[in-house]
Design goal:
single chain; alpha/beta; eight-stranded parallel β-barrel; about 10% strand
């Protein structure tokens, strides 16, 4: 299978927003003139925390496509899989994010550091191809969840060895300089990121020609949601070199659900505050799995008593990613970003609220995907 030039990872923790997500991408295309292929993605960790199975993600995608009469290609991504969990995704997924970051060494030559990871990627790819058929899925290789960014020279080595391993990767997710924390803006040297991003685009172009990799091979930006300060840079360079991009924005839909509920009515606002109250009391439990991709300042987190006194607008403004708003609270947003487990535990209250206020939530999702994300890439 072949994925289009621009693609957008629209993860959905609770499989309730497929229609709203797809509608948002359709509206963004009409407004900005850029078509993004929808890719519903959900990791094994997220399935375990929420208590879902991969087939539910496929069902959500198909129902959204059917409801809106969508006729263009779409995909379902088995996000961050490895040999221990890939089998449960085989039937329902047609995009596989092969995560081999754990196999990357911290020292030594490029061969010593990266070859074990590439060999593991080969094992996983061939396992999927044997089970599913090589023509029936898109392959991504992910190496982003490590401490040290990969240089353009290292990316060239990685791509050369992926080609030698026979992996027809269509997207590659390297580690960039800087912090890609969940739900908040990029933190790091923007000029250095620009240099890395541009050089990586050129390296990919060369490797496609030299090593016979798929002609549509493109960069994949993980935790790509909300990285507003680098979106204009990426957009400009993508247009300059006429290259594609894959951006994963999984967790923001869940945050837009909370924001939408907070402004929907008093009962839904009370539920949103209840989720925050429990997230504050269980912070260690919720943040440990995401420790490498969040930076929460506990001194910035408002107390439960303070939040209880907020009206709907005040609560929403604390969470909505608007860096110019004096009430925006990045630490609170990051905490709730990783607190979806609580909503899953409160599903008897939470799911009916999502269904009741689907229209309000849909407006939040559309603004988030279109205005805050795609418009910054393609103004």
């Amino acid at each position: 299978m072949e994925i289009g030039k621009y693609s957008f990872g629209i993860g959905d923790r609770f499989a309730h927003e497929g229609v709203n997500q797809l509608k948002a991408l359709i509206e963004a295309e009409q407004q900005f003139g850029v078509h993004f292929v929808p890719v519903w993605n959900k990791s094994n960790r997220e399935h375990q925390i929420v208590g879902t199975i991969p087939a539910e993600t496929r069902k959500e995608a198909e129902e959204a496509v059917r409801t809106l009469g969508y006729t263009s290609p779409y995909f379902v991504d088995a996000d961050h899989i490895n040999l221990s969990n890939v089998d449960k995704f085989i039937d329902s997924s047609d995009f596989f994010t092969i995560d081999v970051a754990d196999y990357i060494g911290k020292s030594g030559t490029m061969e010593e550091r990266f070859l074990p990871a590439i060999r593991e990627a080969g094992k996983i790819y061939r396992h999927i191809a044997e089970k599913k058929g090589a023509e029936n899925f898109v392959t991504e290789v992910s190496m982003d969840e490590v401490d040290v960014a990969q240089t353009p020279e290292e990316l060239r080595y990685i791509l050369r060895e992926l080609a030698a391993e026979g992996i027809p990767a269509q997207t590659i997710a390297p580690k960039f300089t800087g912090r890609f924390n969940k739900g908040v803006d990029y933190r790091g040297d923007i000029n250095l990121f620009e240099k890395e991003f541009e050089e990586d685009l050129l390296v990919i172009e060369q490797c496609v020609k030299e090593y016979g990799l798929p002609s549509n091979l493109k960069l994949s930006i993980h935790s790509g949601s909300d990285k507003f300060s680098i979106y204009p840079i990426m957009g400009r360079l993508l247009r300059k070199y006429d290259k594609g991009i894959h951006i994963k924005t999984a967790g923001t839909t869940w945050l837009e659900e909370i924001i939408g509920l907070s402004v929907a009515d008093d009962n839904a606002l009370t539920l949103s505050k209840k989720i925050y109250r429990q997230s504050l009391s269980r912070m260690d439990e919720l943040t440990i799995p995401y420790a490498t991709v969040i930076d929460i300042d506990i001194n910035e987190l408002p107390s439960c008593e303070e939040v209880d006194g907020w009206d709907a607008e005040r609560f929403a403004r604390a969470l909505r990613h608007n860096p110019d708003d004096k009430f925006f609270n990045p630490s609170m947003r990051q905490l709730l970003h990783v607190s979806y487990k609580i909503a899953a535990e409160l599903r008897a209250e939470f799911f009916p609220a999502l269904e009741k206020h689907a229209d309000v939530i849909g407006k939040q999702i559309a603004e988030n995907i279109g205005t805050r994300h795609i418009r910054r890439l393609f103004p």
